[in-house]
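Note to self: keep these together.
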Amino acid sequence: MLTLKQIKENTEAVIERLRKKQFEAREAINEVLNFDEIRRRSQQELDASLSRQKALAKEIGDLMKQGAKEQAESIRSQVALLKEASKSLEEKKAEAEAKIREILLSVPNLPADIVPEGATAEDNVCVKTGGEMPALDATAEPHWELAKDYDLINVCVKTGGEMPALDATAEPHWELAKDYDLIDFELGVKISGAGFPVYKGYGARLQRALINFFLDNAREAGYLEVQPPYVVNEDSGYGTGQLPDKEGQMYHATADNLYLIPTAEVPVTNIYRDVILEEKDLPVRNTAYSACFRREAGSYGKDVRGLNRLHQFDKVEIVCIDKPERSYQRLDEMVAYVETLVTKLELPWRILRLSGGDMSFTSALTYDFEVFSAAQKRWLEVSSVSNFESYQANRLRCRYRDAEQGVQLVHTLNGSALALPRIVAALLENNQTPEGIRIPEALRPYTGFDFIPRPAKK
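Structure:
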């Protein structure tokens, strides 16, 4: 969250910068300043009261030594009144501090100066592209149709036409599914509900190969691998900014008041909650694989078909913590690293700098990676790499010990490296050949196969 120092020293600038995120902050900022004035006055009066109590205590001691017991008792009654007033001032101060925190939790992070103006994804700026666009013929299919052809994913997206007349040798779909044994959305619906696919055979092996490929690359790039829990408590959710902003998007285990993680960013960054890091230990770099869980309330339409949007998916995350003056250098390094991954996977890609209106609540600057799906003829987001500056660190109370300036807030960063579902979709769609679906060369040591073979027609 924003610090009082930021708000008090640059009030109008803070309000103006938050407008870039389509957030009108004046009322909230004025409330913060009013409660801060109450807090400061209460603290001043409390300090004066405590000082007076200390002086009277000394006076009582001197009077008792002199045998002036009656006079000492009279002063004790004054001390009792001061203590009662001090208790009231402490409560007033605590209430003001609680109100300040409550308001600040509802105020998003300040966007960086280079964040583009704009209210939607249409205003994002493409800063770099790479990879070759595959030239597919008119018969090219989107990944959900390929999934049916190859029995990777069984999903009904539309019905129509006449029922075919099948001969006696035709097999039901459950037999065909056993023949190819890859991925099944229908089975996921049976077990859990829509958005929870079951991966099988080549599908499961491709998932596992991508996870290991991403983790190995992250370790080679200097990220320490950790394996975090998949559920977090409220403090962790507030620490990284998912709460209260994204509470409706998180799965909540109410009996234990725990939340299923929407990304490994949450538990990994919270490793450093309430921690003071030594300057010599910076930067901290971590990577983690996790399943991710998102309710994605309100998602519907053609853009959520197949693997485009799921409630449970796999992702490898990278997290970095460093000194403020180095955080944008780290951001550039993280963006360059994610670029190596999509390049190795031989996918057409582009990088977008998100506009203020399309950025997350907590981010100061975000770059999105998108890969091109040739069959769908659209770009698919596969990674977001963000600098949160001190916003998360202030919530987490994550600091470092500076040799000259003492204890200071760190800057936190994170990125998807990478999210699997849309990577899988693009790999399937962009690599269709007469022999089957080609596996990129860099991934073959992990899959153990060069092609997902085309099923023989029966």
